[in-house]
Write a structure and sequence with these properties.
The chain is built from three helices and no strands. It is mainly α. The N and C termini lie far apart (50 Å).
């Protein structure tokens, strides 16, 4: 069983199937968010359907951009740094 899962995610020929499954999963999550009752929301943005998915995606992109900026600006050294 685990061998089939590893080969599924490691096989380049099945990339289109993986992307299709990813998009279907994301669509199901966003559509399911429209059916959540929001009468006890504390903030106005909590009442917006799909807000959690959008906020999570934008937060992830933000952290990646900040980490790359810090890495390239401060952490990464020149190739001959130790020479």
């Amino acid at each position: 069983m685990i061998k089939r899962i590893v080969f599924f995610f490691g096989d380049a020929e099945k990339a289109k199937i993986r992307w299709t499954l990813l998009y279907i999963t994301l669509a199901i999550i966003v559509i399911a968010d429209f059916f959540v009752h929001r009468e006890h929301a504390n903030f106005f943005w909590d009442k917006i359907p799909g807000w959690s998915a959008l906020f999570g995606f934008l937060s992830c992109v933000f952290f990646i951009v900040v980490a790359k900026f810090i890495g390239h600006l401060w952490l990464m050294k020149k190739e001959d740094y130790y020479d």
